[in-house]
Write a structure and sequence with these properties.
Elements (H helix, E strand, L loop, with lengths): L6 E4 L4 E8 L2 E6 L5 E5 L2 E3 L2 E3 L2 E5 L5 E4 L2 E4 H6 L8 E3 L1 H7 L16
Parallel strand pairs: 1-6
Antiparallel strand pairs: 1-2, 2-3, 3-4, 4-7, 5-6, 8-9, 8-10
Keywords: Plasmid
């Protein structure tokens, strides 16, 4: 069930919008609060998504530059070793100084903010 953008009910009774599968988990967007929830061990049963563990992130994504890769706060949490030498940046600042395809860098998949 990879219907990105589809609204589903979470195991907590809240409504979520399905996001991308990223590394070891899936991104969900809380339909009312617009916060991001990164869940691991997700599964669907009777139209409800459940997960083994999850972490909530603010609505606005934080970006970090490490070498020439632009990473999100979720990606940085998943791979803590990338934090060494990483610099917090605004997406707009990165785009103005780097070649970008489709309005974003191609190294990582993202839902437009």
């Amino acid at each position: 069930m990879d219907d990105i953008g589809r609204c589903v009910c979470g195991m907590d009774g809240q409504k979520y919008i399905l996001g991308l599968c990223i590394l070891s988990g899936r991104l969900l967007i809380h339909a009312d609060k617009k916060t991001r929830l990164f869940v691991e061990g997700s599964s669907f049963s009777d139209g409800v998504i459940s997960w083994r563990s999850g972490r909530e992130y603010p609505e606005k994504c934080q970006h970090f530059l490490t070498g020439s890769a632009l990473l999100t706060d979720i990606e940085m949490d998943l791979c803590p070793q990338w934090r060494e030498g990483a610099v917090a940046v605004k997406k707009e600042d990165f785009e103005s100084t780097h070649e970008v395809w489709n309005g974003w860098n191609t190294l990582t998949p993202h839902i437009s903010q």
